[in-house]
Fold:
Amino acid sequence: MKITQLSLFVENRPGTLNDVCRTLKEHNINISTLSLADTQSFGILRLLVKEHQRAKTVLEQNGFVVKTTEVLAIPVANCPGGLAQLLDTLKDCQVEYMYAFASEVHDRAVMVFRFADPDQALAVLKAAHSDIVQEAELFTFA
Structure:
């Protein structure tokens, strides 16, 4: 149900993103999707990788600050209003952030959500009979 996301606090300077990607490449770890938000002095790089524990260890050994967070991957109808329909279902859940997964599952787009209360969001989605992408399923499409 919940998927482990890696969040890295990276310095906002040229080459930092490349350093992260090169480190993962050297350890044969594939990035399935990512999101990067920046401020003037640092950025938060959010990654979904299949081997999150190994990736966390490798990145920390190479000097990166890494935190794990639980997120949900939710299929969204890939049409006008698809995301609005999902957000209607989740209207009582506080979304902290979201980003798109770089693949489609069953002809639908996939959105990655971080909720203030992921268990509440899961309960709402289950009650609405909404699909939730399982971690094992997510990485078969990457």
The chain is about 30% helix and 40% strand. The helical segments are 16-26, 52-61, 82-89, 118-127, 135-138.
